[in-house]
Design brief:
With about 475 residues, the protein is an alpha/beta fold. The chain has three domains: about 1-35 and about 45-150, Orthogonal Bundle (Fumarate Reductase Iron-sulfur Protein, Chain B, domain 2); about 165-260 and about 420-485, FAD/NAD(P)-binding domain; about 265-415, FAD/NAD(P)-binding domain (3-Layer(bba) Sandwich). It is about 35% helix and about 20% strand. The protein has a five-stranded parallel β-sheet. A five-stranded parallel β-sheet has the order 8-15-9-10-11. It is globular, with a radius of gyration of 23 Å. It binds flavin-adenine dinucleotide. Flavin-adenine dinucleotide binds next to helix 11, helix 16, helix 18, helix 19 and helix 20.
């Protein structure tokens, strides 16, 4: 791959482009702003908030890339996208070529362009930061190229090797499973993805709401995998509907476990069982997958007017912004540390604030109080201060003695982390599992203690990110292919 990167960089048109504009001139171009819907308008509907870049904006932003001989941005990309190559194609208006480069290593470019924490990955390694400038907006450009290709109706399907007839099973259709499936299909394997839910896509469908990632975008990228020959079997729970042994009987020669971490954590404080207190997993899954915001649906979700969401991650932001859209008059984030320590993407925090969400930072719930019918009506919050850094490197929250607030609420959504789905670790006998329930793998190959089982994504990492899950899928595919080719 290194040779390909160098060869592409040395192509005459890239040379010419570098000569056209000096690095200083490129670096002086200000970073583009994402076009967005108006906050007041968008906080009452589920339309996508970010509108993408125009072609002119994208070409101008692409000029900011210095086409470095040693592109540090790539070292920040877990799926090794050839970033300067696709960016330079955008600079010269070859948008479909840019999209093709993305698809060489990423099964989900339109998804990653929307939800990947670029500020912590590729953009965090951009050379501009060393010059005290804003990094190139790699994520916005990725989204632009992928959207351009989809909207042009000229979606390319990656090349597939001659079918080798070897059957491989994938457990779970989230980003880890999809990325693995794409890479294995390219190598000619016969791939079946087994999914417990009725929809394909994992958290991309059941977790992340439409206003951030429209389902239609996910479906188009899944469709490309179908065109590559990947088969999907939904409503099939591996470990229950079909067992590890059944997969062997059916002739599967390798299994990639990508079953995610969908088990919600609670705080075990008084009142968590009251009506109106639920996990963000339940809340978002019901709204996103079961039409539960519709009062006519079979299982409508409670529509709160005073909604508190406990936590400071992406899931918490998605929940509180969903509550706002469903009509909450007061929507609050309750977080025990300060905003600086929040794990959510900066953009999500900014958007939530613009939409009127209140941030009760340095507050920690200690009890929920119910009315005579068992419905939550208040929460008691312990005020906190920050102490020394803890094992996570973030400053430890410490309770301020006697400082307690009581606030009226009619719905509480608990979003304080997730644990791995336990079914695969418990039914695939012989797997090594940590005390948290994650599957132990060899980090360089993602191979587990069972020789035919590889694993990746949240089932290995606990709750992580889309791009890390996809990186695991790619690594596992390369290693499984090598193992099967040498057997
Ligand atoms: C609300 C929310 C918002 C998020 N926002 C972001 C974000 O903005 N950016 C980001 O990078 N990350 C975000 N994340 C995290 C990210 O989505 C996850 O890290 C990522 O989806 C993990 O991918 P995965 O493939 O390992 O698992 P998942 O996406 O969880 O997929 C696992 C799939 O396996 C299926 N499954 C489980 N058990 C079985 C079984 N026994 N048989 C068959 N199927 C099974 C599940 O139904 C699920 O569909 C968010 C997470 C949530 C919950």
């Amino acid at each position: 791959m290194k040779e390909q990167i160098i060869a592409r960089r040395n192509e005459p048109w890239r040379d010419e482009l570098r000569k056209n504009l000096k690095n200083k001139e490129r670096a002086d171009i200000p970073r583009v702003h994402m076009n967005e819907l108006d906050p007041e308008y968008r906080s009452h509907n589920s339309e996508e908030v970010n509108l993408g870049l125009t072609a002119e904006q994208a070409m101008q932003e692409a000029k900011r890339c210095l086409d470095c001989p040693n592109p540090t941005c790539m070292s920040g990309c877990p799926v090794s996208i050839q970033i300067p190559t696709f960016v330079k194609y955008i600079e010269v208006g070859k948008f479909l070529d840019a999209a093709k480069v993305l698809k060489e290593t990423s099964a989900l470019p339109a998804v990653c362009g929307r939800v990947c924490p670029q500020e912590k990955q590729c953009e965090a390694q951009c050379i501009h930061l060393k010059m005290k400038k804003d990094p190139v907006a790699i994520g916005y450009l990725e989204r632009f190229a992928a959207d351009y290709e989809r909207e042009s109706g000229q979606m390319s399907v990656p090349e597939i090797a001659k079918p080798n007839g070897i059957k491989i099973a994938v457990v779970g259709s989230g980003p880890a499973g999809l990325s693995f499936a794409g890479d294995m299909a390219k190598r000619g394997y016969d791939i079946t993805v087994f999914e417990a839910l009725h929809e394909i896509g994992g958290v991309l469908k059941y977790g992340i709401p439409e206003f951030r990632l429209p389902n239609e975008i996910v479906d188009v990228e899944i469709d490309i995998l179908r065109k590559m020959g990947v088969k999907f079997l939904n409503n099939c729970i591996v470990g229950k509907t079909i067992t590890y042994e059944d997969l062997h009987v059916d002739g599967f020669k390798g299994i990639f476990a990508a079953s995610g971490a969908g088990l919600p954590n609670f705080m075990n404080i008084p009142g968590e069982n009251l009506i109106g207190v639920m996990s963000s997993n339940e809340y978002l899954t019901r709204v996103n997958l079961m039409d539960a915001a519709n009062p006519e649906s079979d299982t409508p979700v409670l529509i709160g007017k005073k909604v508190a969401v406990i936590g400071g991650g992406n899931t918490a932001m998605d929940s509180v912004r969903t509550a706002r859209r469903l009509g909450a008059e007061r929507s609050m984030i309750v977080y025990r540390r300060s905003e600086e320590e929040m794990p959510a993407r900066i953009e999500e925090v900014k958007h939530a604030k613009e939409e009127g969400v209140e941030f009760l930072t340095l507050h920690n719930p200690i009890e929920y109080i119910g009315d005579e019918r068992g419905r939550v009506k208040q929460m008691r919050l312990q005020k906190m201060a920050l102490g020394e850094p803890d094992a996570s490197g973030r400053r430890r929250p410490i309770a301020i003695a006697g400082a307690i607030d009581t606030i009226d609420v009619d719905e509480v959504i608990v979003s304080v982390g997730v644990s791995p789905n336990p079914l695969i670790p418990s039914t695939f006998k012989g797997l090594d599992v940590t005390k948290w329930g994650t599957i132990i793998v060899d980090e360089s190959t993602m191979r587990s203690a069972l020789p035919d089982v590889y694993a990746g994504g949240d089932i290995v990492r606990g709750g992580a990110t889309v791009i890390l899950a996809m990186g695991d899928g790619r690594k596992a595919a390369a290693a499984m292919h090598q193992q099967l080719s040498s057997d």
